[in-house]
Write a structure and sequence with these properties.
Helix content is about 40%, strand content about 25%. The protein has helices at about 40-45, 70-75, 90-95, 100, 105-120, 125-130, 140-150, 170-185, 195-200, 220-225, 230-235, 240-245, 270-280, 300-305, and strands spanning about 1-10, 15-25, 30-35, 55-60, 65, 75-80, 155-160, 190-195, 205-210, 215-220, 255, 285, 295-300.
Length: about 300
């Protein structure tokens, strides 16, 4: 568990981060979202003490981070940034194994960890281990950057706009990779972005910052349904709110007995995709796969009801 307690930072007597408090549960992704100048990157940098807090405290599993030497703290916290920051003269294996090597891991253990992470990121170890960063695509370099940050099994992974430089298709794949690997490894991640779509796609919890303050902290569904301020409502998007809400809800939530024409969709399909398929095909219901083979469907009427939200 990561506890952020009253964390503040001032520049010229103006608060860049103003008494921010939140808890990041172990094994979850918390996304900090806000516009430029909202304090989100400064908050992230105070957690691993690249910036010194003027007030407040950060605790990792109950231990205050200011009780640790900075270099020891940073070995417990992975850090991945936009542009990945790989060492160009190191092979991919040496890049990923850099921190474990500093920690004195045995060579065979480092090699096993490198191969494990490359495999998790769908990069065949034998094919990529001995390459150099310049030989990889931008998306592959970003994967290696995240793998390096995860290599020493850190207590916390901090990510600052990690996918901002990628084109939309590669960015979506990188986001899916991160979510899949986070679930496989049980990593605790705190990620900064200005993109609410990315926050909703990745976050178990979302923290919205405005003017240095934490204005709302909750689940993606809760923030979309009940934005705490006008700024949060603007961030989640007026006309886009229903679609963003539907993207978080699976068909399984509103499946009902009955038949419908066409090929059955998986119960894990999100309602946004189901809505698009209904509209594209001109149907008012879609068949849904079931484990026991019983006839089931999801209707356009039920999807629209979910999009209406509360009230």
């Amino acid at each position: 568990m990561i506890e952020i307690d009253g964390l503040s930072k001032f520049y010229d007597n103006k608060a860049a981060v103003d008494a921010v408090s939140m808890t990041v549960e172990t094994g979850t992704i918390t996304v900090i979202v806000g516009t430029s100048g909202s304090g989100k990157t400064t908050l992230l940098r105070m957690i691993n003490r690249l910036e010194t807090a003027d007030a407040g405290e950060v605790r990792i599993h109950g231990e205050a981070t200011d009780s640790l030497a900075p270099h020891l703290l940073r070995r417990r916290i992975g850090y991945a940034i936009q542009g990945h920051g790989l060492f160009p003269h190191y092979t991919i294996a040496r890049n990923i194994g850099a921190v474990p090597a500093l920690l004195g891991w045995p060579e065979d253990q480092i090699r096993a960890r490198v191969d494990e992470l490359l495999s998790l990121f769908s990069m065949e170890p034998a094919q990529f281990r001995d390459r150099y960063p310049a030989e990889l695509s931008g998306g592959q370099q970003q994967r290696v950057g995240v793998a390096r940050a995860l290599a020493s099994r850190p207590d916390l992974l901090l990510m600052d706009e990690p996918f901002g430089a990628l084109d939309p298709i590669i960015r979506a794949r990188a986001q899916d990779d991160l979510r899949r690997i986070q679930r496989a490894l049980g990593s605790t991640i705190l990620l900064v972005t200005h993109d609410m779509e990315e926050a909703i796609r990745l976050g178990d919890r979302i923290a919205v910052m405005d003017g240095g303050r934490l204005v709302q902290h909750g689940s993606p569904t809760g923030i979309i349904r009940n934005p705490a301020t006008g700024f949060v409502a603007e961030m989640v998007g007026g006309v886009e709110r229903p679609l963003r809400l539907l993207s978080l809800l699976p068909v399984a939530d509103i499946v009902e007995p009955g038949t419908a024409p066409g090929e059955a969709i998986a119960p894990t399909t999100n309602l946004r995709d189901a809505l698009a398929l209904c509209l594209w095909s001109g149907r008012d219901a879609l068949p849904v796969q079931t484990d026991d083979g019983r006839a089931a469907r999801v209707t356009l009427k039920a999807i629209r009801a979910q999009a209406q939200g509360p009230g």
